[in-house]
């Protein structure tokens, strides 16, 4: 029997999900670099000019939230998310594979719930941030986008599971 990972559409999907994962990871790294630059400029303005930037803390906070949610899909695609590895100690492969499928299904379900319940709140907000006057749907959208990215990586992991490093290699 052929593996689903060998189907043409599935191969294309997993390649696209890997490219998306890499792009999101690079964007998150760029955002973290930008946050460091904003922090440096804010400290310099406070101590050299005596006048701090009022928007810098808020921009850094929202940037960190976006960077975390953008990186979440990449972390999942490599199998580096936090997990309890007790099931790896079970000697029966079929049970380990069943537990992995249950975990993928639970993660996909959580993603659907967060996106499903979060989207109406995202579209209904009329709020703006205190300092930057940024529409609050922009920072709130990080959660929705992050869970959509996780859902894409869950489907890709179902098609072609990531190879996780063993616990012995970390020791």
Describe this structure in words.
With 171 residues, the chain is an all-alpha fold. It has one domain. Helices cover 72% and strands 0% of the residues. Helix 1 packs antiparallel against helix 2. The relative contact order is 0.15.
Share of β-strand residues: under 5%
* End-to-end C-alpha gap: 37 Å
The biggest beta sheet reads: none
- Along the chain, the helix and strand elements come as HHHHH
SS elements, strand count: 0
- Per DSSP, the total helix count is 5
Q: Per the principal axes of the C-alpha atoms, what is the gross shape?
A: elongated
Uncertain stretches = 167-171
Q: Can you give the mean pLDDT?
A: 87
Global Rg: 20 Å
Main structural class = mainly alpha
Number of domains: 1
Percent of residues in helical segments?
A: over 70%
Protein name: TRAP transporter small permease protein
Family: Belongs to the TRAP transporter small permease family.
Organism: Halomonas salipaludis
Transmembrane segments: 27-47, 59-77, 98-117, 137-159
Describe the SSE topology.
Layout: H1 8-49, H2 56-77, H3 93-124, H4 137-159, H5 167-170
Q: Care to give the gist of this entry?
A:
This protein has 171 residues and is an all-alpha fold. Helix content is 72%, strand content 0%. The chain has one domain (4-163).
Describe the structure using short key phrases:
mainly alpha, cell membrane, TRAP transporter small permease protein, 171 residues, transmembrane, elongated, disordered C terminus
């Amino acid at each position: 029997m052929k593996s689903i990972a060998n189907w043409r559409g599935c191969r294309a999907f997993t390649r696209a999900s890997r490219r998306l994962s890499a792009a999101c990871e690079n964007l998150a790294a760029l955002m973290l670099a930008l946050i460091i630059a904003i922090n440096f400029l804010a400290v310099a303005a406070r101590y050299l000019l005596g006048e701090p930037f009022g928007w810098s803390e808020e921009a850094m906070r929202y940037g960190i939230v976006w960077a975390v949610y953008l990186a979440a899909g990449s972390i999942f695609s490599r199998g580096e998310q936090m997990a309890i590895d007790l099931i790896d100690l079970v000697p029966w492969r079929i049970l380990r594979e069943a537990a992995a499928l249950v975990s993928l299904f639970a993660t996909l379900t959580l993603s659907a719930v967060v996106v499903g319940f979060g989207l109406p709140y995202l579209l209904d907000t009329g709020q703006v941030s205190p300092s930057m006057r940024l529409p609050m749907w922009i920072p709130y959208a990080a959660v929705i986008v992050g869970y959509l990215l996780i859902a894409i990586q869950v489907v890709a992991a179902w098609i072609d599971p990531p190879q996780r490093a063993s616990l012995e290699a970390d020791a």
